[in-house]
Amino acid sequence: MNYLNERMLILHYATHADALITERMYALDPELKAPFQMSAASLMAALNLRLDRAERIYKNIQQLRHRNLHLELEKQGIGFLTRNDPHYPVRLQMIYDPPAVLFYQGNLSILKKTSPLAVIGSRRPSPEAVPIIEELLNPIPADELLIVSGLAEGVDGFAHKWALKNNVATMAILGSGFTHIYPPSHTPLARSIKNENLILSEYPPETKPQRWHFPKRNRLISGISKAVLIVEANEKSGSMITANCALEQGREVLAVPGSPLKKQAAGCLRLIQEGAKTVMSAEDIIEEI
User: Fold this and answer.
1) Tens of pLDDT along 47-69?
2) Are 161 and 196 in contact (CB under 8 A)?
3) How far, in Å, are 51, 88, 130, 182 from residue 187 at the CA level?
4) Residues 6 or more apart from 74 whose CB is under 8 A from it?
5) Does 114 share its domain with 84?
6) Residues 195, 243: contact at Cβ < 8 Å?
7) C-alpha dist (Å) from residue 25 to 21, 28, 38, 186, 212
8) Rounded distance, CA 54 to CA 216, Å?
9) pLDDT per residue over 157-210, tens digit each?
């Protein structure tokens, strides 16, 4: 048993997947023993927390240390990776706030694919979205391609389904735990993905989706990818948040232009104005991945 991984798993649960607090704990003690020996007041002082937050974390640690989380996850068919695991995605290690723990279901080997491409867009896309995805992705060599998206309605779901249909590797990154797939209508799609591909989440399995989880999740979609392809997006949308994450992380942002008369095109047009690469063909994507 790797006791450091077990301690990191407990602290990840105790902090409700707060990567920055867990990182502070790790900086305080690389063996992660200290947080288990500290009072709530000590946690507050050492980690620069409000007292109420420190008290909740302290209480969670005391409760969780008596559970066998590793075994609980195993019984649910869920694996986990900590940041010191050799299988932890290298690109995520390089972002500002990588999760201390990633939970997964499916085939970890697809993380070795050398051309991970995030494909995201509107939850209420135009009828042109599917033909655009097919036109742009069909010519890309499939061997090393990995389609990354967020299992959302609209473009995300189309991208996952395109990958499954064409025997291309795909990965869904959730904004909830595995027992609360969101949207619920995509539960069968999630099941299809995990059969031969991969589902990831930084949230423990029982975590219900919350509105703030999804913007936070978007940094993982961009962070794990070489480039982010935005097919359609409103000017104020989750896709634009992901694009901003990508820029902060030094990832390429690729935008498909559309008619200025369409609200689904407004986000892409704005990104192109601000310097994103205009995508007119598959070649424009291949050059970046």
Assistant:
1) 999 999 999 999 999 999 999 99
2) no
3) 39, 25, 21, 8
4) none
5) no
6) no
7) 6, 5, 11, 36, 23
8) 22
9) 999 999 999 999 999 999 999 999 999 999 999 999 999 999 999 999 999 999
**Domain shared by 77 and 193, yes or no:** no
If we measure between CA atoms, which residue out of 63, 50, 52 comes closest to residue 13? 63
Judge if 49 and 181 occupy the same domain: no
* 94-130 residue pLDDT tens: 999 999 999 999 999 999 999 999 999 999 999 999 9
The DSSP-derived string for the chain is --HHHHHHHHHHHHTTS-HHHHHHHHHH-TT--HHHH--HHHHHHHHT--HHHHHHHHHHHHHHTTS-HHHHHHHTT-EEEETTSTTS-HHHHTSSS--SEEEEEE-GGGGG-SEEEEEE--SS--TTHHHHHHHHHTTS-STTEEEEE---TTHHHHHHHHHHHTT-EEEEE-SS-TTS-SSGGGHHHHHHHHHHSEEEESS-TTPPP-TTHHHHHHHHHHHTSSEEEESS--SSSHHHHHHHHHHHHT-EEEE----TT-GGGHHHHHHHHTTPEE--SHHHHHTT-
Q: Would the pTM of this model clear 0.90, i.e. be above it?
A: yes
CATH number, domain at 183? 3.40.50.450
Q: How many domains does the chain have?
A: 2
**Boundary residue ending a domain (54, 78, 104):** 104
Residue 1, pLDDT score: 59
| Predicted pLDDT of residue 261 | 85
Residues 129, 20, single domain; the answer is: no
Domain extent at residue 52? 3-89+96-104
User: Minimal CA–CA distance to 201: which of 170, 181, 177, 179?
Assistant: 177
Those residues with Cβ within 8 angstroms of residue 110's Cβ, 6 or more apart along the chain or in another chain: 146, 169, 171, 197, 198
